[in-house]
Amino acid sequence: MNDELFNLIERLANLLRQETRLEGQSLGLQPIQQEALYYLSTCNRYSDTTLAVTEFLGLTKGTVSQSLKILESKSLIAKVKDKKDKRITHLKVTETGREFLMKTCPPQKFTDAIAGLSVDEEFETKTLLKKVLSNYQLATGRTAFGVCKHCKFNRKTSDGILCDLTKEALSSDDIMLICREYVV
């Protein structure tokens, strides 16, 4: 059973990578560059640095730096200095980058395949995949990079939403994004 489930998930992941790779060829992007761009479109302000991209992708800093330079040269991302700490540089997806992602992520064929599921089937699939992901993260000890609103540091206060780790206020948009400081 585990082999069959692994094979199904691996096959699905491979098909998604192939489709994404084909979409990226329109801009001359390599898969690693597309992964970095997509990640940057889904992460919060604590997670949009070169180091965070490196940690998320599990690659060397040199490889990631080169990929980010290419994304910047194609005007898909822009470097922005942190307003509070000028030593920190944030990587922001540009409008051009967002337009590319809107056309390519998720790939249209994946969207078409999901459209073949009933509302209940889609909900059940999401629920089960979230459980598998959570179990796998716990088993590997790699729980970082989760959605902010599910983090143990995310706290509702009378003034709004607060990150108990950074002691900073969070917006409703912030809590929907991936954070590298995420803790189960």
Automatic annotation (TrEMBL):
One of its GO terms (molecular function) is DNA-binding transcription factor activity. GO terms for biological process: response to stress. Residues 2-134 form the HTH marR-type domain. The keyword Cytoplasm applies. GO terms for cellular component: cytoplasm. SMART domains: HTH_MARR. Its main location: cytoplasm. It holds the Pfam family Staph_reg_Sar_Rot. Keywords: Cytoplasm, DNA-binding, Transcription, Transcription regulation, Virulence. It comes from the Bacteria. Gene3D superfamilies: Winged helix-like DNA-binding domain superfamily/Winged helix DNA-binding domain (1.10.10.10). This is HTH-type transcriptional regulator MgrA. The lineage of its organism: Bacteria, Pseudomonadati, Pseudomonadota, Gammaproteobacteria, Alteromonadales.
